[in-house]
Amino acid sequence: MKYLHNIGTYFIMIKDMFRRPTKWSVLKTLILKDIDDLIIGSLGIVAFIAFFVGGVVAIQTSLNISNPLIPKYLVGFATRQSIILEFAPTFISIIMAGKVGSFITSSIGTMRVTEQIDALEVMGINAINYLVFPKFIALTLYPFVISIAMFLGILGGLAACVYGGYGTLEDYIEGVQNDFIPFHMAYAFIKTMVFAFILATIPSFYGYFMKGGALEVGKASTTSFVWTSVVIILLNFLLTSLLLG
Amino acid sequence: MIEVKDLHKSFGDAHILKGISTTFDKGKTNLIIGQSGSGKTVFLKCLLGLFEYEKGSISYDGKVFSNLSRDERTELRSEIGMVFQGSALFDSMTIAENVMFPLRMFTKQNKSEMEDRVDFVLKRVNLDNAHHKMPSEASGGMQKRVAIARAIVNNPKYLFCDEPNSGLDPKTAIVIDNLIQEITDEYQITTVINSHDMNSVMEIGEKIVFLKDGHKEWEGSKDTIFRTDNEAVTNFVYSSELFKKVRKMYLDGNQ
To answer: Can you tell me whether residue B240 is helix, strand or coil?
Structure first.
C-alpha cells in the first residue's frame, strides 16, 4: 500500500513540476547552477571511469579470444558495442544515481529539514517547480555526458589494446568501424534521455517528501540511490526489449 | 485583520484543533501561547495555508482563504511574511540575496531598486554591513534579523513568526521582540507570533491567545494576563518563581 501511495505521489509531483512556473529570471540562474552541479561537476568522474572501463573491456575481450579463426578486429568491435549499448548509457547512469542522485536528495532533503521548503511555500512559490524543474532541464544535457563517456570508453580500449600489446591500432580501428548500425546510437540516446528524467525526478521525490532530521536525510539518500538504480535497470530491460527485441 | 472561526484540524484519529475562534488585529502583535502539544504550530500552519483544515474558516481582511482560487491564494501569500523558528534562510544565497529573494520573485523592480530596498530593510534591522555574508557565517541573532528583513522586504500585510526567540540569549531576544513590535506598529502589519517565551508575552503581547489541548482556553493582553484567575493560564505563565514575584508586584502596585 505504501509503495502505491509513493508511486501516486511521485506522479503528482511530476505534474506539479510543470505547473505555476517560477519567474524566468530566477529560473535561469537555477538552471545554470544545476548544470554546473549536475553536469559539469560529473564530467571528471565519468571520464575517469569510462576511460579505464573501456580499457578493461578491450583487455578482457582480447584475453578471451583464443581461437585463431576469430579476427583480431573483434576487440575494437566488442569494445565499441559494449560501451555504446550498455556501459555508457546504463552503467554510467547507475554511477550517476549515486553521485548526482544522492546530491539531489540530500540538498532538497536538507532544505526540507531546515524549513527552507516551507519558506518557499509560504511565499506562494511552487516549491516543486522551483526545485525540481531546473534539475530536469539541466539533465537534458545528460546525453552530452554520455557522449563523452562513449568516446573516452572507446579511446581507453584503444589505449589498453595498443599500448598493452593486445592488438594493433589498425585492427582496433577496423573493429570500431566494422558493422556499425546507426540505430544503436539512437537506442543508446533514447535510453539516456529516459534515465536523465529518472535521475532528476526520483532523487528529488525522496528529498522533497522526506520527514525527520539529519539522520533521515542520509537514509533518504540511500533509499533514493537504491530505487533510482532499480528503476534504471528495469527500464533498461524494457527499452531494450522494445527497441532491439 | 485575520479572523478565525470554529477551526478544526485532525491528523487521522487525533483531533488537534477543536473549534478555535479568534481575531488577530491589524497593527498589533498577537501572540499564540500554550504548552508543547497544545496545537500552536498546527494552528499557525493552518493560518499560513500549509495545512488544510476540516471545518471552520480563516479570513484575511474579509477574504475567506478556503474560498480563494489557486491564483488568489498565491497572491495572498505574496502579502505574507514569515519568520521561521530556525530562520529558514536559503543557505546557497548571501544575506543580501536572501532578503532580495521575495522582490525577485514577486516584483518587477530593476536591480538597483531592489538593492536600494534591501539596503533599507537591512539597515532597519541593524545589519548594515552583512550583505555579502553567507547565512552560515552569521550568528543566531543575525540570522533572525535577516529572516525578519526577508519577511518585511515586500511590505507584507501579515507577518507570522514561529518562536522568533528560540535559541537566543535574553538580550538578543529582547532586541528581536522590540524589532518585531516596532515594525508591526510602523507598517501597520497584522503580526501573529507563536511563542513559548514569557518575556515576549510580558513585553509585546498586545493580544494573547492561550491554547490548551487544541482549544482556546483564554484570550487577553499583557495587562490582563496579570489579573486573570484562569488556572491553566496562571499555571503556565507563572510557573517560575520569578514570574510569580513579577505578578505579585504588578498586582500589589495596581491595588
So the answer is: coil
Say how far apart CA A59 and CA A75 lie, in whole Å: 8
The rounded percent of chain B whose pLDDT value lies above 70 is: 99
Q: Which of A51, A44, A48, A43 is nearest to A161 (CA)?
A: A51
List, in sequence order, every beta strand (DSSP E) within B84-156. none
Report the relative pairing of strands B158-162 and B80-83 from DSSP bridges: parallel
pTM, full prediction: 0.86
Q: Read off the pLDDT of each residue in B23-45 and give the average, rounded to a whole number.
A: 90
Residue ranges in chain A whose pLDDT is less than 50: none
pLDDT digits (tens, 9 = 90+) for B198-238: 888 888 888 999 999 999 999 998 888 888 888 888 888 88
Q: How far apart are CA B119 and CA A36, in angstroms?
A: 30
Closest by CA position to A58, among listed A149, A146, A155, A147: A155
Cell readout for A46 is 565519468
Taking the C-alpha atoms of residue A203 and residue A186, their distance in angstroms, rounded to an integer, is: 26
User: Would you call B73 and A123 a contact, using CB atoms and an 8 Å cutoff?
Assistant: no
| Residue B255 pLDDT level (bands cut at 50, 70, 90) | low
pLDDT at B254: 65
Residue where the block lists cell 525526478: A201
Q: What is the pLDDT at residue A245?
A: 79
Closest partner CB to B105 (pick from A114, A121, A125): A125
What number of other Cβ atoms are within 10 A of residue A171's Cβ?
Answer: 19
Which chain A positions have a beta carbon within 8 Å of B49's beta carbon? 122
Q: Of the candidates A125, A99, A52, which has an alpha carbon nearest to the alpha carbon of residue A199?
A: A99
Check residues B169 and B119 and name the one with the higher pLDDT. B119
- Please tell me the number of Cα atoms within 13 Å of B17 on its side-chain side: 27
Res. B4 pLDDT band, cuts 50 70 90 = very high
Rounded to whole angstroms, how far apart are CA atoms A144 and B27?
A: 56
| Beta carbons within 10 angstroms of residue B186's beta carbon | 11
Type of residue at A9: T
Q: Tell me the three cell numbers of residue A175.
A: 573493429
CA nearest A114 in B: which residue?
B88
User: Going by DSSP bridges, is the β-strand pair B207-212/B215-220 parallel, antiparallel, or unpaired?
Assistant: antiparallel
B77 and A123 in contact by Cβ < 8 A?
yes
Residue B243 has pLDDT above 90, yes or no: no
Cite the beta strand spans of B178-228 per DSSP E. 190-194, 207-212, 215-220
Q: To 10 degrees, the CA torsion angle through B25, B29, B33, B39?
A: 50
- Asked whether this complex has an ipTM greater than 0.90, the answer is no
Number of other CB atoms surrounding residue A40 within 10 Å? 13
pLDDT at A80: 96
* Angle at alpha carbon of residue B115, lines to B112 and B120, rounded to 5°: 130
B113 shares contact with chain A (CB less than 8 Å): no
Grid coordinates representing B111?
536591480
